[in-house]
Write a structure and sequence with these properties.
The protein is mainly alpha-helical. The chain has a domain of 91 residues: Alpha Horseshoe (Leucine-rich Repeat Variant), CATH 1.25.10.10. 64% of the residues lie in helices and 0% in strands. Helix 16 runs parallel beside helix 18. The longest helix has 19 residues. The protein is elongated, with a radius of gyration of 30 Å. The protein starts with a helix and ends with a helix.
């Protein structure tokens, strides 16, 4: 056999023997933390593997991490039970960043222990909404109660809408009721009569989220609100909820409201209602309205009648 071929074979055999006798990447004394992941998904790089957050990492991120770090750490720690992490995460319910507050409540509500018992984080949040002297902190507590998705928050938010002196708190409580899928035994209807525009808007927004909300007259009343943005939101909700009795009100707004956004929304909602009685008005609006977008909305609505 050619000596060159023999030489190549010898080198190959030597290399093969080296591979067979080399040490594994992780010895028995140092287990691979991603072995389970690799067994399922194959040999993927470490930077593409999602590792659970350790308790120390959760506490460190909560103490001084950026919003992105907090989100990533808490998301990866969804199922990590860590009682002494709770006092570290709880202050984030009152952070200036709403996304940070949201992820903090999301993480806390997933704890099996240490959050929902007497005197624990949830009860402290309820008490903050009831009695803290800082209205901004009370408002953040209301938002947190919405994210906790627990029924005791309904009564606390109802009380805040009815009694809190600060409109920021009342608006936050109204928003939380929408997250809790509850009208608060009439509290959302009360929010729609509030003297503050933001509270009325929060009440309207939540009414659209609550699948049992039935106070259509309260929504219809806001179609005549002095604030155009409130009228527009009320008009849109009347259409979304298919409130048939609102057709006459919507027809008048489509024709006469001074705000183009309100007129356009009224046309859209008439189309949602399939309000055939509004045909002549919609035809007129489609031809004569001074705003092109309103004319377009009227034309679209006509196709739905």
């Amino acid at each position: 056999m050619n000596t060159k071929i023999l030489g190549v074979l010898a080198i190959g055999i030597a290399l093969f023997g080296t591979v067979l006798h080399s040490e594994p990447a992780h010895s028995d004394d140092t287990p691979d933390p991603a072995a389970g992941t690799r067994a399922i998904y194959g040999n993927i790089p470490n930077d593409q593997i999602e590792f659970l957050s350790s308790p120390d990492r959760i506490k460190s991120a909560a103490a001084g991490g950026s919003m992105t770090t907090i989100w990533e750490t808490l998301e990866h720690g969804e199922r990590v039970e860590c009682l002494d992490c709770i006092p570290a995460v709880e202050p984030l319910l009152y952070d200036a960043n709403p996304r940070t507050r949201e992820i903090a409540a999301w993480w806390l509500r997933r704890r099996m222990f240490g959050v929902f018992g007497p005197g624990e984080a949830y009860e402290r949040t309820v008490n903050t909404l009831k009695s803290d002297g800082n209205p901004e902190k009370r408002a953040n507590a209301a938002y947190a109660l919405g994210e906790f998705l627990a029924t005791p928050g309904i009564e606390a938010c109802k009380t805040a809408i009815e009694t809190d002196a600060d409109p920021r708190v009342r608006a936050a409580a109204a928003s939380a009721l929408g997250r809790l899928n509850s009208d608060g035994a009439g509290a959302l209807s009360r929010a729609m009569t509030d003297g503050d525009k933001k509270v009325r808007l929060a009440g309207l927004s939540s009414a659209g989220r609550v699948n049992t909300f039935a106070d259509a007259p309260a929504i219809a009343k806001l179609a005549g609100d002095g604030e155009p943005v409130v009228r527009r939101n009320a008009v849109e909700l009347l259409g979304a909820l298919k409130v048939k009795d609102s057709a006459a009100t919507l027809t008048a707004l489509a024709k006469n409201d001074p705000d183009a956004d309100v007129r356009g929304s009224a046309c859209h909602s008439l189309g949602e209602l399939r309000a055939s009685a509004a045909r002549s008005v919609l035809e007129d609006v489609a031809k004569t309205d001074t705003n092109g977008l309103v004319r377009d909305q009227a034309s679209i609505a006509l196709r739905r009648l």
